[in-house]
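ok so I'm stuck.
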Amino acid sequence: MKAFACGDVVPGCEARWVCSTEDEILARVGAHATSAHGLTEISPELVGAVRGSIVAA
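replied:
not stuck anymore, here's the structure
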């Protein structure tokens, strides 16, 4: 299992995920970034920051 807390990348955001794979987390975080944070494009730097903050759960 893998876990990610959005607040590790976007201070103040309380969203968290625990998923089977890193790819599943990335898909959910991408949807969240669009709906909750209004991002229309996900930069490679943001993907890198998210990947770097994913931990074993």
